[in-house]
Design brief:
Helices cover about 70% and strands about 0% of the residues. It is mainly alpha-helical. Among the domains are: about 60 residues, no CATH class; about 60 residues. The protein is rod-shaped, with a radius of gyration of 61 Å. The N terminus is likely disordered.
């Protein structure tokens, strides 16, 4: 049975929207009003007229609510419930979109962190390579200096040897000269 805001019946027999009264009782009245209405009796009389009025009101309400369209009542109707369901679905979709956006942002942040870590590792590797190259260069320079020093020492030793040889030759020449003079003196003596 469709909800009806006002049917022209007494207040205790008027139907209310489901959102206001909960559920209908077995006789078609709102559960909140069940205790206030008079006991129904079958047959003729006031209660039978009330039954007919309720059925007429139900038919009028059914005619006034168009499937898929806007209802003409001021209170909540089936269309209102459909709208509420649609709104709930929209809210759920928005929440899902927000969750997806958050997940995407988290994924982007993780990617950025990974990229930063990789960049740092590359930088460290480059620094290590530079240090190794500098150390290698220093070692080569030290080796070159040592070789130069050794060559200088060898040259110096060679020069000293040459000087010693020259001195030895001079001494030999002096000795030969002395011997020649002695021989001349001996020959000249009577």
């Amino acid at each position: 049975m469709l909800p009806l805001q006002s049917s022209g019946l007494p207040a205790h027999q008027q139907h209310r929207p489901l959102s206001q009264c909960g559920s209908l009782d077995t006789q078609g009245y709102c559960g909140q009003e069940a205790g206030r209405r008079p006991e129904k009796r079958h047959g003729t009389g006031r209660d039978a007229d009330d039954d007919r009025a309720v059925r007429a009101a139900d038919r009028a309400q059914s005619a006034r609510v168009k499937p898929g369209g806007d209802d003409l009542m001021d209170g909540p109707t089936l269309c209102d419930e459909e709208e509420e369901e649609e709104e709930a679905e929209e809210v759920e979709e928005e929440e899902e979109e927000e969750e997806e956006e958050e997940e995407e942002e988290e994924a982007e942040e993780e990617e950025e962190e990974v990229e930063e870590e990789e960049a740092e590792e590359e930088k460290e590797e480059e620094e290590e390579e530079e240090e190794e190259e500098e150390e290698k260069k220093e070692e080569e320079e030290e080796e070159e200096e040592e070789e130069e020093e050794e060559e200088e020492e060898e040259e110096k030793e060679e020069e000293e040897e040459e000087e010693e040889e020259e001195e030895a030759e001079e001494e030999e020449e002096e000795e030969e000269e002395e011997e020649e003079e002695e021989e001349k003196e001996e020959e000249a003596a009577p």
